[in-house]
Design a protein that fits this description.
The protein is mainly beta. It has no helices and eleven strands. 0% of the residues lie in helices and 51% in strands. The strands form two sheets. Strands 2, 4, 5, 6, 9, 10 and 11 form a seven-stranded mixed beta sheet that branches. A four-stranded antiparallel beta sheet has the order 1-3-8-7, with no helix packed on it. A hairpin with a 5-residue loop joins strand 4 (34-39) and strand 5 (45-51). The protein is globular, with a radius of gyration of 13 Å. The chain starts with a strand and ends with a strand.
Length: 111
């Protein structure tokens, strides 16, 4: 069974940092595109970042310079380091690869 399981969400103050992890089981991440997306309450899904099979990365303008996506082939895991978080970035964050998508941890940015 293919699964993507995220972790690392929680409550953080504005300006703080969190690192999300997404572990894949049942298939190998290594050569696939992997992305993070988020959905805030009452809003649609917003793409955040992608890391391609060749290691190239892309970021939404709103997070560029603050977020960093990376992957570990040995651990079959993709990460999203989020820095200088803003309250409006409160959302459920999900990782996705091909047709598979995780449930996503809640990230709440609030004082």
């Amino acid at each position: 069974e293919v699964q993507l399981v995220e972790s690392g969400g929680g409550l953080v103050q504005p300006g703080g940092s969190l690192r999300l992890s997404c572990v894949a089981s049942g298939f190998t991440f290594s050569n696939s595109h992997k992305l993070w997306a988020r959905q805030a309450p009452g809003r649609g899904v917003e793409w955040v970042s992608t890391i391609y099979g060749n290691g190239r990365t892309d970021y939404a303008d709103s997070v560029n310079g603050r977020f960093n996506i990376s992957s570990d082939r040995v651990k079959n895991t993709v990460y999203l380091q989020m820095n200088r978080l803003k309250p409006e970035e409160t959302a459920v964050y999900c990782c996705q690869s091909g047709p598979w998508r995780g449930q996503g941890p809640q990230v709440t940015v609030s004082s």
